[in-house]
């Protein structure tokens, strides 16, 4: 990765969903920056079906052929036992764990009136529970180390989505309720993890990337297409997101905690969560018959 140097030299990083798309870009860039990488991926289709262990192995082999160190993992990170085995893979293979990049996800959506309960459960399981499981297992290991040796420079990078957080997302939300809800929950989880884990030296941040992946290509948005002009900057190339991930996994991100970054092409933004934009306080219990005017004023002030 251009400009990465030895940014992550000697660090051990787990990347989930590292077999394709953004995760693959992260794994390769982290290796180029000096990290030893646990390439975790079930190798499934975008809907989470038809696992293929060769997907993770191919990325591991690519890293090794380039002179890096990597090991593949086919564990399901959306359960505590699978996440624990991923952490153990890092420890048994490389003797340590410094950072976790939670990237794995699936796509099963539809209009709410047509959404199947099992599809909603699977999207939430992989995105939200997968993030929570990996954070829990990694943090338990780091807490034990911190008790013996003191806090250190450990990192968690979570993945949310502009679609879930921005007032005017680059793509519409209609038909994507399961995905949007799970990704918004990841952003909220990030803030809680950041608050709980900083005492151990763990910095927890999230990214909301916009890039061309199998999941986004399935939506058919024209802006995801590769530029036709020769040499033109491809703003949707997943490799554009990797420098931020490498930096967040490095010791240089010390003190940056509980942040949510939007990244697309060469643009990096810091996102702010829910905030009060207008208020009314009567000093006593509200009266339902008076809310017409109160709500109208709040909406007008916010607009």
Distance between the termini: 43 Å
- Any idea what the radius of gyration is? 20 Å
Form type? globular
CATH class of the largest domain: Alpha Beta
User: Sheet with the most strands?
Assistant: 8 strands, mixed
SSE order in H/E notation?
EHEHEHEHEHHEHHEEH
Strand content: 5-15%
The assigned CATH architecture of the largest domain is 3-Layer(aba) Sandwich
The average pLDDT is: 91
Looking at CATH, which topology of the largest domain would you report?
Rossmann fold
The total of beta strands comes to 8
Structural class assignment: alpha/beta
Strand order of the largest sheet: 3-2-1-4-5-6-7-8
Number of helices: 9
Please characterize this protein's 3D structure.
- By secondary structure, this protein is α/β, with parallel strands linked by helices.
- It has 2 domains: 261 residues, Rossmann fold (3-Layer(aba) Sandwich), CATH 3.40.50.720; 26 residues, no CATH class.
- The chain contains 9 helices and 8 strands.
- An 8-stranded mixed sheet has the order 3-2-1-4-5-6-7-8, sandwiched between helices.
- The radius of gyration is 20 Å and the shape is globular.
- The termini are far apart.
- The model has no long low-confidence stretch (mean pLDDT 91).
């Amino acid at each position: 990765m251009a400009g990465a140097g030895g940014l992550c030299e000697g660090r051990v990083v787990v990347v989930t969903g590292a077999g394709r798309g953004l995760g693959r870009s992260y794994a390769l860039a982290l290796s180029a920056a000096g990290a030893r990488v646990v390439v975790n991926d079930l190798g499934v289709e975008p809907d989470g079906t038809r696992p293929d262990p060769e997907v993770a192995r191919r990325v591991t082999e690519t890293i090794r052929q380039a002179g890096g160190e990597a090991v593949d993992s086919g564990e399901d990170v959306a359960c505590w036992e699978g996440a624990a085995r991923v952490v153990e893979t890092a420890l048994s293979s490389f003797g340590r764990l410094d950072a976790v990049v939670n990237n794995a996800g699936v796509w099963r959506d539809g209009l709410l009136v047509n959404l199947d309960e099992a599809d909603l459960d699977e999207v939430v399981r992989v995105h939200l529970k997968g993030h929570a499981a990996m954070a829990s297992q990694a943090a338990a290991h780091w807490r034990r180390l911190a008790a013996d040796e003191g806090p250190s420079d450990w990192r968690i990078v979570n993945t949310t989505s502009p679609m879930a957080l921005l007032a005017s997302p680059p793509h519409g939300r209609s038909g994507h309720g399961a995905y949007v809800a799970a990704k918004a929950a990841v952003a909220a989880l990030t803030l809680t993890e950041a608050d709980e884990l900083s005492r151990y030296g763990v910095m927890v941040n999230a990214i909301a990337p916009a890039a061309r992946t199998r999941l986004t290509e399935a939506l058919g948005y024209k802006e995801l297409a590769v530029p036709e002009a020769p040499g033109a900057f491809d703003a949707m190339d997943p490799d554009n997101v990797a420098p931020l991930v490498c930096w967040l996994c490095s010791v240089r991100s010390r003190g940056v905690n509980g942040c949510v970054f939007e990244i697309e092409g060469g643009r990096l933004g810091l996102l702010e969560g829910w905030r009060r934009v207008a208020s009314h306080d009567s000093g006593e219990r509200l009266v339902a018959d008076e809310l017409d005017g109160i709500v109208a004023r709040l909406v007008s002030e916010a607009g």
